[in-house]
Design a protein that fits this description.
Layout (H helix, E strand, L loop, with lengths): L4 H5 L4 H25 L3 E7 L5 E8 L5 H30 L4 H6 L8 H9 L2 H6 L2 H9 L4 H8 L10 H5 L3 H14 L5 E10 L7 E6 L10 E8 L5 E10 H4 L8 H28 L1
Antiparallel strand pairs: 1-2, 2-5, 3-6, 4-5
Helix pairs in contact: 2-3, 2-12, 3-10, 3-12, 7-12, 10-12
């Protein structure tokens, strides 16, 4: 059965509504993070040392992260993962007209790091292999983290890549959504932690030579030294710092982490883009 484009693009359909709902939760999360920070719960303080020209910066956390932050992250994750699955369900239902209970359960959006994992997701369950049409498979493959790397390989484009498919996929917002959604649903709340970010500047050109060096792996605990400022000559007149809120489960995927509200916003942006991409790709594939 041919699927009506107006149906897939209708903002009143579940997949678009769930994305909008994620935006609502994202606003609540941003307010919670802002309130936590404005209470002075997180700070970085200077500590002099016995070594000339060396100052340590110590992280202090005066109260634990409120569980409402992790709960809000879970709400966003659930809405986004559900939006992706809802689109697949909507397409399959429109194609077939009626679905059994087992067919409904099989309607999930694949998020795969490699082409092999993508194919396995569809073919390992007979019911899914039977109900996923060729236009749907092509559209879903366009949204996968591996798509452009695989496209260049198949088209003999020589682009040097040092990472494996799996390594590059770890930074992909869809992979973060999939992994954290599973953690939130089946194991525990996503764990929040502080990630102090520091930078310094000089008020004049007096010739001081200083470097600011991070210390130890993140996330840091209360009382941990997070950086050392060392050098000679006129000391920087100010060291500016801010404490990002990060998720422990994704922090190791970044050389420098993104503040939590910004990270969640990137998930929503990517999911909205993915829904649009799949819809447009599906309609193009179906029309051929």
């Amino acid at each position: 059965m041919k699927v009506n484009s107006a149906y897939l693009l209708d903002p009143g359909q579940a997949w678009w509504l769930k994305c909008d709902h994620a935006n609502t939760h994202s606003g609540q999360l941003a307010a919670l993070c802002r309130d936590f920070r404005t209470r002075g719960a997180l700070e970085v303080v200077e500590r002099t040392t016995s070594r000339p020209g060396v100052t340590e910066f110590v992280f202090r956390q005066h109260e634990p992260f409120p569980p409402e932050i992790s709960l809000a992250v879970g709400d966003v994750l659930h809405a986004l993962r559900s939006a992706l699955d809802s689109l697949v369900y909507g397409i399959v239902l429109s194609e077939r007209g009626e679905l059994s209970e087992s067919e409904e359960r099989a309607c999930q959006f694949p998020i795969a790091a490699t082409p092999t994992m993508f194919d396995k997701f569809i073919t390992e369950r007979k019911v899914r292999d039977r109900i996923y049409s060729e236009p749907l498979r092509k559209a879903l493959s366009r949204a996968q983290p591996f798509y452009w790397r695989e496209f260049t390989r198949l088209n003999y484009l020589e682009i040097p890549v040092n990472e494996s498919y799996e390594d590059s996929a770890r930074n992909h917002p869809l992979c973060q959504i999939a992994e954290l959604s599973n953690i939130d649903k089946h194991r525990r709340l996503p764990a929040a932690a502080a990630w102090p970010a520091l930078r310094y500047y000089m008020s004049d050109e007096s010739g001081g030579r200083y470097s600011l060096t991070p210390v130890g792996p993140a996330p840091w605990v209360d009382g941990a030294v997070v950086a050392r400022l060392s050098g000679e000559g006129r000391r920087p007149t100010a060291v500016v710092h801010e404490c990002h809120i990060a998720l422990v489960d994704v922090a190791h995927w970044y050389e420098s982490t993104t503040d939590l509200p910004d990270l969640v916003a990137s998930w929503i942006e990517r999911t909205t883009y993915t829904l649009s991409l799949v819809v447009q790709s599906y309609l193009q594939a179906e029309s051929k």
